[in-house]
Description:
- The protein is built from 21 helices and 7 strands.
- By secondary structure, the chain is α/β, with parallel strands linked by helices.
- The protein has a domain at 403-505.
- Strands 4-3-5-7-6 form a 5-stranded mixed β-sheet. Strands 1-2 form a two-stranded antiparallel sheet.
- α19 links the parallel β3 (424-426) and β4.
- α1 runs parallel beside α15 and α7 runs antiparallel to α8.
- The termini are far apart.
Amino acid sequence: xxxxxxRVNLLVLIIALLATACLVLAISVYGLGLTNDSxxxxxxxxxxxxxxxxxxxxxxxxxxxxxxxxxxxxxxxxFIKVDxxxxxxxxxxxxxxxAVVYTFGCLAYRLTRSRLYTALGMVIFVAGPPTFISxxxxxxxxxxxxxxxxxxxxLDRCLGEQKFGILLFTAVAASLSIMVRYAGVVNIGIGAFxxxxxxxxxxxxxxxxxxxxxxxxxxxxxxxxxxNYLISSTLTGAGRTVALSxxxxxxxxxxxxxxxxxxxFPPYTFAGMLTIVACASVFTLLAFAVATMYRRHxxxxxxxxxxxxxxxxxxxxxxxxxxxxSSEFPNARLTSPAFFSFVLVLISIVxxxxxxxxxxxxxxxxxxVAVLLLFNLPKYVxxxxxxxxxxxSGHSDKASxxxxxxxxxxxxxxxxxxxxREIAFTxxxxxxxxxxxxxxxxxxxxxxxxxxxAFQYTTEEKLLIWFSTVDNAERLHTILKDTLQQYEVVRExxxxxxxxxxxxxxxxxxxx
Length: 512
């Protein structure tokens, strides 16, 4: 007969293994999804291995838009002489996913003391778009979420025991998170705040562990920022230069990202306002519930507060970075750390109030949980089916592998000599780099549609390799038309997914 703790461990283990098996199934045919960020991580890893520096050859500039740790982790596979980087990292990603899901289950039981709510929480977390998407692509979110979990658990224990070793562990975990993604700055803020508030004693006693934590956590980042400033005169790269976005649109996209954790975005005129009101109402209720549980001395109230603070701050960071156009607008990937904490907070509140509520409340909670599962479970199955049949979207899916334009370029005998004497441009240099087509520059700046200086510079001729299937292709094409008015098309090759244009400066052009 198994003890209570053994039954819980077995339950968590079984769900984590089933979830991991589903991930393996989804990436078994076409592998992990690859986006532009994925290619940047891989290119920087290869550059670090071969040249001892972080450089992106398809951009002809240094790797500064991201911290270095994820690329260092990838480069370690080169150092141990791994032949198939993607396949090997896929195995690593699967283990990371299992570790995160299993840890989630352990924390869920710690917060709820209920096998039922632990299982429900794990299913909601596993089936949620932020979780599956983040771990099924070659993205830095996988190690980032794991390091964030280590930090959150370490911080809770540090506040309870206040030992130097645990404080150091917490600071190192926070440092690792911020060296994987700049978003880890949230962990630094959370750690500093809770250490200052929860440390017993006067101002000096509170400042001592707080400053030690911040110093250790930020030390590696300070060195990275110094390196970035020396080579680019920016701390986080020119691609993240501040440029104010539309406030109301950013609010809507942030609320939409949260809404789509569980439900499809409604196709109505006032859908944006609806999601803002709904999200504001939910977080207001959650804040009230957390505050009430704290006052009633909920056993794990300190961990609950840390998780709730983590949820709010990660969403706020997504909003701020999108507002200043230093990253993409909030989506499932960028909000995945907040989703982890949110689901734990949600099931903690639900389990607590169900035990202390009336029959009506229990029925309402059951209905809400049913809605959360009804949408995400079919979508989760759809993700797995897509991974098997066509591959997850990106440079490694079926369409990209069978790209007529890529195949034509690979088989050409003119491209390599051309890029040695002239600059060729494309709106998808990451795709071309991944398929071994080197020396082709990007037309626009990342995160925005601003054209690069190199592309805008007037030359006698330009070669443009245009993919019609990439994001923002139509909007960017409109911008390019204005820039290329001074040029005429002297040759054009069309393909199902794009075209190759040979352009020449017009004889009567004022720029000639």
